[in-house]
Amino acid sequence: QVQLVESGGGLVQPGGSLILSCAASGRTFSSYDMAWFRQAPGKEREFVAVIRARIGNTYYADSVKGRFTISRDNALNTVFLQMNSLKPEDTAVYYCAADPGQQYNRSPTAYAYWGQGTQVTVSS
Length: 124
What we know:
- The protein is mainly β.
- The protein has no helices and eleven strands.
- The N and C termini lie far apart (40 Å).
């Protein structure tokens, strides 16, 4: 069992930046693909970014490419999402997710473990 706890959300003006963190329990964090998803009111949960286990390859949704950066610190059992040049359409609850199967997948169904989410609001 893996427990994930997100932090770092909040209110930011358009063009601003935030860093989200997701702390994971357990001793096998380095063997999980880790991803960020988001869900806006009335919309389906959508993929944001994924970082592979061990080798650290990354993949981004087109909507955030060049603005967001996913990274991980396996010594700290933590994955990060650096968000720059934020737009109002980035407003959503952001969730981190873990995939022990290392499927490097954009589908939420590939991820066995989820955090509780953290709210990001981009507004002036």
